[in-house]
Amino acid sequence: MTWFKGLFSKKHADEQTDTPFQDNATAQDDGFNRFNRQAGAGPKHSLPTFQGTASDQLREGHRGPLDQVRFRLRDAFTPSRPITRPQMFAGRTHILRSLIRAIEEQHLHVVIYGERGIGKTSLLNILADLAQNAKYLVRYVSCSEGAEFENTFRAILRDIPLLYHRDYTPTSDEAEQGKTLEDLAGSETLTVARATDILARLSNTRVVIILDEFDRALNPAFRASIAELIKSLSDRSIRVQLVIGGVAASLTELIDRIPSIRRNIYGMQIPNMSDEEIANLIQNGQSVSGLEFGPDVMRFITSLSCGSPYLASLISQYAGIIAVDRESKLVTRADVVQAIRQSLDEIRSRLQPTLHYRIDQAYVDGLGPMLGLLACTALNAGGTLQPSTVKELAATEGWQDGFLDNLDKKYNLVSKIPGDPTDSYQFSDEGSPTYLWLRYADHEICRKESGKNT
Ligand SMILES: Nc1ncnc2c1ncn2[C@@H]1O[C@H](COP(=O)(O)OP(=O)(O)O)[C@@H](O)[C@H]1O
Ligand SMILES: [Mg+2]
């Protein structure tokens, strides 16, 4: 329980001096009001403009060095978009190595799970890329609420050319006409058995089917079909492997349906990122954007992120934008402090109004610090509030017995994890720990920073 200690008490001189950016910018560009750069600037031209075109070109009047940094920043930190480019993918090498081994050497189906924002989709994107480089046929499906086996697997079969079917040579008429495995499915309902029969005839390739956001697929029939498919593919050693990503509960359910598939599955919980991995994420963003995050600032962002790549990316992006708005390439601690507030506003806007209300009630009752510290605990432990950790925290903070029960019954902010043998709790809303932690950090840090500056 030491990760947040020091964050608020750390003596930080913010040793870096924030030198304004200087380079080959023309004198006219220096400190020049962006909006007045356009020809004929005047009242009617004072609206802000897009700085780039839809084809990713910087527009006339927006080509100063800082404009370029601002423009590159959108690819440097992408908290709202999973990583797709290997050069932007930080850390996780040992996880990738294990997943590759499970697929390539053990021919297992893979299930990865973890909290939202922990980096599952990014990991799956990079895994897909690596498999494609090794000539696997990779088909990626992001499951939707109404996902059905028939539609999903028809689309997958439609994407596999007939030339990979052992009964058709690449020069056969059908293969040359661009037919696909879906043409073999006919018009009758595509059952798991029929799909397995078709996939059993694959030759000369291996197929990896990625089913991401599996927890979003609410249809029990779909989940049951996937469990059945894993069983039949494994029983017949078919050259197709499923890689499934989602939050834990949906995947436990998947395995519970057919317990015997457990031995055909390699399951992995995606852990929080280490400090080195978060630093690596910031360094990647630094190289792409041209911004500079000093070591002190990097440590600050790392401790605020609680191992979440999403939080690290969000705070770094806002801090970068704030630095560029100051016409500087150097991101300072003060920029990060402002970035916390802006990140908090963004996350708050996504919470349900009833959740706002319940949190605000708890704050009015003086429970803000407790919620902040519990949120930090949950973020560091894959979303769970384990009794041993919580007990230790309660002893340090002097909380009365029964505080979790109170947060559950009175405010409905936490709840017992159903069926958990350790009697752990979790936050009732999956988005709330991030919000509560940042709200606490904002309050504590701003209080300290303003004390320091006065
Ligand atoms: N390995 C990584 N390197 C750099 N950034 C990452 C990495 N993993 C995740 N991120 C960042 O965190 C955000 C959330 O990741 P994502 O893959 O969408 O998580 P999940 O699928 O678990 O919800 C992404 O938008 C991305 O910016
Ligand atoms: Mg995802």
From TrEMBL:
<dbReference type="GO" id="GO:0016887">
    <property type="term" value="F:ATP hydrolysis activity"/>
</dbReference>
<feature type="domain" description="AAA+ ATPase">
    <location>
        <begin position="106"/>
        <end position="344"/>
    </location>
</feature>
<dbReference type="InterPro" id="IPR027417">
    <property type="entry name" value="P-loop_NTPase"/>
</dbReference>
<keyword id="KW-0067">ATP-binding</keyword>
<dbReference type="InterPro" id="IPR003593">
    <property type="entry name" value="AAA+_ATPase"/>
</dbReference>
<protein>
    <submittedName>
        <fullName>ATP-binding protein</fullName>
    </submittedName>
</protein>
<dbReference type="InterPro" id="IPR049945">
    <property type="entry name" value="AAA_22"/>
</dbReference>
<keyword id="KW-0547">Nucleotide-binding</keyword>
<dbReference type="GO" id="GO:0005524">
    <property type="term" value="F:ATP binding"/>
</dbReference>
<dbReference type="Pfam" id="PF13401">
    <property type="entry name" value="AAA_22"/>
</dbReference>
<feature type="region of interest" description="Disordered">
    <location>
        <begin position="32"/>
        <end position="61"/>
    </location>
</feature>
